[in-house]
Amino acid sequence: MSTPPIRLAVFASGEGTNLENIIRYFSSAPTIEVALVVSNRPEAKALERARCHGIPCKVVNRTVLAEDEATVIALLHDIDYIILAGFLLRIPTYLIDAFPQRIINIHPSLLPKYGGKGMYGHHVHEAVCAAGEKESGITIHFVTEGIDEGEPIAQFSTPLIPGSETPDTIADKIHRLEQAHFPEVIARIATIHREA
Ligand code: GAR
Question: Of all helices (H) and strands (E), which one includes residue 125?
Answer without folding.
Answer: helix 121-130
